[in-house]
Amino acid sequence: MNSDEYSRISGIQHFVFCPRQWGLIEIDNLWQENLLTVTGSQLHEKVHQIGREKRTGRITVRSMRVKSDQYQIQGECDAVEFVPDEEGVFMPGYNGRYKVYPVEYKKGKAKSDLSDCLQLVAQTVCLEEMLCCEIPIAYLFYFETRRREEIEITQELREKLQQALSQMFSYRGRNHIPRVKKTKKCDACSLLEQCWPELEALEKASTYMKRRIQE
Description:
The chain is an alpha/beta fold. The chain contains seven helices and seven strands; from the N terminus they run βαααββββαββααα.
C-alpha cells in the first residue's frame, strides 16, 4: 500500500467515537463545521503556533508528522516531548539521550470511551517505529479541565488499536459506511444533517442526498 493511502490517525478518534461519522468523513468525503469543531480547531492552532521550544533540557516539538508502515497509519502529533534520560534514544542534532512522550490536546474533558486514548496510542506506535524505542507513557491534555492525564500504553490498548484499524480497513476496502443507532451524542455531531442515523436505507448517505435532490 502506498503511504498516501494510509489511514489518518485523526480518523481513529472519529471511528471509535462513531464508526458512521468516520465513514461519512473518510469514505463519502463529507464534512461540516459546528461550534464544537471550530473551537477545537482554534485551540489546536494555538498549540501548533508555539513551535519548537527547549526548556531546562526538555525539548518540545509541535505539529510533528509521524507514520507507521506496520500499522499503515500516518498523521500529526500535537506535541512530542523529549526529556533527557540516559536510557532514552539518541536525537540527531542534540546532545545526550531522551525519553519520548507524545502529548495530544483535546477541547473538552476526559471521555468514557477510548476514542482519545486510541488516537494517542496510534501516535505512540508511530513514534516507536520511527525512533526505534519503547514508549510506555503518553499524555492527554484537556482544555476544559486544564489537566494532563497520564495514559499507560498497555498491551490491551495496543490490541484495541489493531482491532479498530482492522475494522476501518475492512470498511474502506468494501467502500461501506457503517450503520449506527441514534444516541444522545448524535445531537452534538456536526454531520447530523448529513448522517440521518435513524434511516434504515442501505445506500450511502451521498447517494441518498443525490436522489432526494433529483426527486
